[in-house]
Amino acid sequence: MLDPIRPAAAARLPLVTLYLSERCNSRCISCDYWRHGRQDLDAATVRALLPQLASLGTETVLLSGGEPLVHPQWLQIAELLRGAGLRLWLLTSGLSLAKHARAAAQLFDSVTVSLDGTDAATYAAIRGLDAFENVCSGIRAAATAGAAVGVRVTVQRRNFRQLPRFVTLTGELGARQVSFLAVDVANPHAFARRDGALTDLALTPAEVPELEQIVAGLERGSAALFRTRFIAESPRRLRHLVRYFAAVCGAGAYPPVRCNAPEFSAVIDAHGQVSPCFFIRGPAEAQLARGGLAQALGSRAARLQREQIRAGAAPECRTCVCSLWREPAAQPTPVRLLPEAAHV
């Protein structure tokens, strides 16, 4: 049974993701935001959110989307959040980063750029635009301006053979870290998709052993880069890519997911919808317009949803490609949006 809703002061929400816009200037084959996105998050909504974030102990805000830099007021919003003492993290396609590199370096503690090819042809085949050099220029410019830039690679059949080159390219561009996750082909609604999962992006059964050899080669040849976290994932975590694609092919179980992200974070989309994570949409009543963030998090439906996630009963969690775990010991004042229960 759920506890009665606690007052906002009893809850902690260290990380909040804001989708500044549903719109995007990329044309990715794995995503439909660019096809259907229209809504931007109003700056007035963000301003009204500031005292609520303070009462929930929010420390970091991730600006995402869609593409956050297409929002006409992104700079104003970032300055509002920064002025409130919040740490800022930008997740971007990088298409506009060269233009805004200096501002990004001044405002954001971290900048993560999605880069899904190591050459122009691969990038265009996946992202739908001939913009590889433009994105690389943006990464260089932001790094030169002093931003802590990371490269995020979504691994799929068109680019998996380039994993070693992604590592070297990241260093050449001046970025500080490269991370890899598998393309989500199991969740039919990921990235605003309306037509179901895209299984043709996954590796074939014949390609999975090839990926396994590539990962093993990285593990043997890049031990120092794993040790310093230049490659963000551990070798063990990187081997999950192999297990994931094998499972997609029906050759084994999906790798176990260890995630407690809904215990310390929430996602707010451009409509004000509050969700427990990127891949699980929150209940209809979890809306900022219905009483604010604490009320949305404390609604009965939202609490039941998080309890389902804790119990491992959310189907999206079993095949998740982007789990996030924060050790309770690393949280001096851990999140308590729900009663005590076993972690997922």
What report would you give on this structure?
This protein has 344 residues and is of the alpha/beta class. It has one domain: Aldolase class I (TIM Barrel), CATH 3.20.20.70. Helix content is 36%, strand content 12%. The chain has 14 helices and 8 strands. The protein has an 8-stranded mixed beta sheet. Helix 7 links the parallel strand 5 (149-155) and strand 6. The two termini are 18 Å apart. The model is unreliable at 1-10 and 331-344 (pLDDT under 50).
Structural class: alpha/beta
The tally of domains stands at 1
* Portion in strands: 5-15%
In CATH's first tier, which class applies? Alpha Beta
CATH architecture label? Alpha-Beta Barrel
Strand order of the largest sheet: 6-5-4-3-2-1-7-8
C-alpha-based Rg, rounded: 20 Å
Secondary-structure element order, N to C: EHHEHEHEHHEHEHHHHEEHHH
- Uncertain residue segments: 1-10, 331-344
Average pLDDT taken over every residue:
88
